[in-house]
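ok so I'm stuck.
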Amino acid sequence: MFSILVVEDNSSLNKLISAKLRMETYRVFSAFDGQEALDLLEHEHIDLIISDVMMPNVDGYELIKSLRTVGITTPILMITAKDQIEDMEKGFNVGTDDYMIKPVNMTEMILRVKALLRRAKIASERKLRIGNTVLDYDALTVEVQDTVYDMPPKEFYLLFKLLSNPNKIFTRLELLDEIWGMDTEIDDRTIDSHIKKLRRKFETCTDFELVTVRGLGYKGKI
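replied:
not stuck anymore, here's the structure
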């Protein structure tokens, strides 16, 4: 069971967020300012933090900066009434992973929490599990049922990228820049060629699908 810390000085909102998280079967801790959160983190393992910005004693920015300074990489979702781009930029600069504006849509919050926890699990294990399929980033292998495929690096990175971010559309240029590098001289037809190879290789696998989004690029569907 994942443990989530809610850091929010408004007691009503703190209770509301905590109740929603418990309905999703998360283990929930509450703190009402940054210092209380830091004290709690000394003796509790927390998988994700949801933090307000404007709080007494130690605010959200200070809390995040304190954690990142000592190397704590726990995913953080910042929730704030501020909607200026400067405030969002400051939040990301000190190390937050995601950002929501009040009033908080609880359904959206749960979706963001699940996405952050999923990415954190992938980053720590360097493995992606989808049904009966396992992608091992270090070994560059894809295991489907009892069959293990040793993958060419670019094919593996492309597949891992798409399936790590299901339903997110990536343009061909984005995929080229990230996987082949911005200075590459190859064109976007290389992406199309690799997608075709991946589809042929895993045509009998029902755990995922590589979808062409006409006029835009590709997305992974699981």
